Amino acid sequence: MAYRMNMPPNEERASQRLFGTDGVRGVANVYPMTAEVAMQLGRALAHLIRNGPHRHRVIIGKDTRLSGYMLEQALAAGLISMGVDVDLVGPLPTPGIANLTTSMRADAGAVISASHNPYQDNGIKFFWRDGFKLPDETEAKIEELVASGAIDSIRPTATKIGRAFRLEDARGRYIVFLKTTFPRELTLEGLTVVVDCANGAAYKTAPAVLEELGAKVITLGVQPDGKNINHKCGALHPENLAKCVVKNGANLGIALDGDADRLIVVDEKGQVVDGDAIMAICTGELVTRKELKKKTLVATVMSNIGLERAVANYGVKVVRTKVGDRYVVEEMRKNGYNLGGEQSGHLIFSDHTTTGDGTLAALQLLAVMCRQQKPVSELASIFQPVPQTLLNVVVKNKRELGELPTVMRAIQDVEKKLGKDGRVLVRFSGTEPKARVLIEGTDAARNEQYAQQIAQELSAALNG
């Protein structure tokens, strides 16, 4: 569980899970997102990476939340207290930290961000020296070290204490990397692109990349004040972006989230193009260029059945995973696939990077536009989604669905009514105290009705 609404007593903390599906996350300055826990996480990570006589180093980045200052300093203090040096890069997209971790041969990378959550929340997630997020077993070791106090007595002194440095050119390094992922023979000259950076970590990098590649760039969400990250802007709220695209006659609208690891697009007509549609477009291009490995696309259980139908036209199969880009990446690494992602806009092009990268994904889509000389609306027409309804239900507790007979009866009843033309997916969020109810079927009105039925049973069972 990523966090609880009520802080557990001290003696119960050892039994609480810290890591959810995307690191540790919660309300800033409330357990577990406190300075004390951040310091303990830093100490535990330092203990795990120390493996030899060389000086060890961790890259630390963050998004633009007010609480990032507090957690950045605490995490750095924990690492330094264990004899590990840190490079502080300030606001930089999550994928930028993954990239710097590998390019600078650091031992690990750390990102202080709650991604798409409101500014009151924050989180900490780690990358290993290979640029991939920590596997479950490594996160479990960190939790054990934090809970047990086993490393409390390890206190380097004198010259063995770590040091902190400010990495001044981090943004420039990441911008250069992003530009290398765009085909050298192409240019964005003549295109007008609106980019909404959600007042988050990409507020300087994304516009710079697009401008340097030749596009005329109109910016939204590039004035962070510590409190406006994701607020009525970015990937979760593309409404203003859509209006701006139409008003300015732009070719494309790009919406990122707070840490810029996800992408939602708006076409030239102001219509939203989600992660499923982008994957369908890029799948077709990779097949045409004979670059899609094993003719397989990796998606999660949340992706629309329309995605499978779209890519089937190219002879491509879809492998589905649990929700979470980390599980998509694990499947890709395990079986040698090179394209995967989520409907929400986490898109992984593993020929270029190790994690979801909203700006990089936008560049890959722009490359398809340039090569085919077609507008996004035409490219996206290959994807015809089946109507979906997604409801979020705030819950006080999370329990196995099998332990909730009234909920299971409601799910089974809806599944029977939908038959083979639809599906039901009910899951708990790994980052928020919510249950998510997804209904997919041919009739949108009935989908909404069915989702409400299940949501009511969930609320009654878990909030009573």
From TrEMBL:
<feature type="modified residue" description="Phosphoserine">
    <location>
        <position position="115"/>
    </location>
</feature>
<dbReference type="GO" id="GO:0005975">
    <property type="term" value="P:carbohydrate metabolic process"/>
</dbReference>
<feature type="active site" description="Phosphoserine intermediate">
    <location>
        <position position="115"/>
    </location>
</feature>
<feature type="binding site">
    <location>
        <position position="259"/>
    </location>
    <ligand>
        <name>Mg(2+)</name>
    </ligand>
</feature>
<dbReference type="GO" id="GO:0004615">
    <property type="term" value="F:phosphomannomutase activity"/>
</dbReference>
<keyword id="KW-0597">Phosphoprotein</keyword>
<protein>
    <recommendedName>
        <fullName>Phosphoglucosamine mutase</fullName>
        <ecNumber>5.4.2.10</ecNumber>
    </recommendedName>
</protein>
<dbReference type="InterPro" id="IPR005844">
    <property type="entry name" value="A-D-PHexomutase_a/b/a-I"/>
</dbReference>
<comment type="similarity">
    <text>Belongs to the phosphohexose mutase family.</text>
</comment>
<dbReference type="InterPro" id="IPR005841">
    <property type="entry name" value="Alpha-D-phosphohexomutase_SF"/>
</dbReference>
<feature type="binding site">
    <location>
        <position position="261"/>
    </location>
    <ligand>
        <name>Mg(2+)</name>
    </ligand>
</feature>
<dbReference type="InterPro" id="IPR005846">
    <property type="entry name" value="A-D-PHexomutase_a/b/a-III"/>
</dbReference>
<dbReference type="GO" id="GO:0009252">
    <property type="term" value="P:peptidoglycan biosynthetic process"/>
</dbReference>
<dbReference type="GO" id="GO:0000287">
    <property type="term" value="F:magnesium ion binding"/>
</dbReference>
<comment type="function">
    <text>Catalyzes the conversion of glucosamine-6-phosphate to glucosamine-1-phosphate.</text>
</comment>
<keyword id="KW-0460">Magnesium</keyword>
<feature type="binding site">
    <location>
        <position position="257"/>
    </location>
    <ligand>
        <name>Mg(2+)</name>
    </ligand>
</feature>
<dbReference type="GO" id="GO:0008966">
    <property type="term" value="F:phosphoglucosamine mutase activity"/>
</dbReference>
<dbReference type="InterPro" id="IPR006352">
    <property type="entry name" value="GlmM_bact"/>
</dbReference>
<keyword id="KW-0413">Isomerase</keyword>
<feature type="domain" description="Alpha-D-phosphohexomutase alpha/beta/alpha">
    <location>
        <begin position="17"/>
        <end position="148"/>
    </location>
</feature>
<dbReference type="InterPro" id="IPR005843">
    <property type="entry name" value="A-D-PHexomutase_C"/>
</dbReference>
<dbReference type="InterPro" id="IPR016055">
    <property type="entry name" value="A-D-PHexomutase_a/b/a-I/II/III"/>
</dbReference>
<dbReference type="Pfam" id="PF02880">
    <property type="entry name" value="PGM_PMM_III"/>
</dbReference>
<dbReference type="Pfam" id="PF00408">
    <property type="entry name" value="PGM_PMM_IV"/>
</dbReference>
<dbReference type="Pfam" id="PF02879">
    <property type="entry name" value="PGM_PMM_II"/>
</dbReference>
<dbReference type="GO" id="GO:0006048">
    <property type="term" value="P:UDP-N-acetylglucosamine biosynthetic process"/>
</dbReference>
<feature type="domain" description="Alpha-D-phosphohexomutase C-terminal">
    <location>
        <begin position="390"/>
        <end position="456"/>
    </location>
</feature>
<dbReference type="InterPro" id="IPR005845">
    <property type="entry name" value="A-D-PHexomutase_a/b/a-II"/>
</dbReference>
<dbReference type="InterPro" id="IPR050060">
    <property type="entry name" value="Phosphoglucosamine_mutase"/>
</dbReference>
<dbReference type="Pfam" id="PF02878">
    <property type="entry name" value="PGM_PMM_I"/>
</dbReference>
<feature type="domain" description="Alpha-D-phosphohexomutase alpha/beta/alpha">
    <location>
        <begin position="274"/>
        <end position="384"/>
    </location>
</feature>
<dbReference type="InterPro" id="IPR036900">
    <property type="entry name" value="A-D-PHexomutase_C_sf"/>
</dbReference>
<keyword id="KW-0479">Metal-binding</keyword>
<feature type="binding site" description="via phosphate group">
    <location>
        <position position="115"/>
    </location>
    <ligand>
        <name>Mg(2+)</name>
    </ligand>
</feature>
<dbReference type="GO" id="GO:0005829">
    <property type="term" value="C:cytosol"/>
</dbReference>
<feature type="domain" description="Alpha-D-phosphohexomutase alpha/beta/alpha">
    <location>
        <begin position="174"/>
        <end position="270"/>
    </location>
</feature>
